[in-house]
Structures are given as C-alpha cells and as structure tokens.
Amino acid sequence: xLGLESSILEEVVFRLFLLSGVAWLVGRLLGRSQSxxxxxxxxxxSTAAFGLAHLPAWAAATSVHWPMIVVVLALNxxxxxxxxxxxxxxxxxxxxxxxxxxxxVVQALGPRVLS
Length: 115
What we know:
By secondary structure, the protein is mostly helical. It has helices spanning 2-30, 37-61, 66-90, 92-114. Helix 1 (2-30) crosses helix 3 and helix 1 crosses helix 4 (92-114).
C-alpha cells in the first residue's frame, strides 16, 4: 500500500507540479521559439529534486558514503527521467502506474539482490 501511496504522491509533486510548473515558467520566459527547452529544464530540475528526496530514506537505512549517494542519485535520476518523459508523453495516470510497477519490482528484487 505504501508503494501505491508514494507513487501517487511523488508523481503529483515531482511531475504534475514541479516539472509542469518549471516548464510553464521557462516557456513564459523564453516565449514560443524554444519548443523543447521548457520541458528539458523542467525534467532536469524535477529529476534532481526526485533523486535528492530519496536520499534521507537511504541514509536512515544504511551508512552514508559517496558510492551510496551516487548510486541512489543515479538510479532515482534514471527513474525521474523515465517517469517524467512518460508523464509528458502520456499523462499523469501512466506515470503513476509505471512508478508503482517499478516500486513493486524494486521492493521484490531489492532484498534478494542485496542479500
């Protein structure tokens, strides 16, 4: 149940509000001549925030060291880019479903891979 709740919350916060809000703001500042730039700026900023938001949970679960920080940011960055693109291309519902599916896979395989 936590996976579903976090998938919905994170997609609404990071994709619907942050990515869309930044893209809208950049689009307003640059005008219509820069077609992909607003989306790319929104995607990069929302992905960075998404990765950073996952660090405290990992820090509470294990010792903090640079390789762990790099891995957490890289894996969540990959997810952030993928979910952001899915959100932009197909909408919030698809991003939530894909995020939830990824959470289920990670939670099912994670303990087996780490042990």
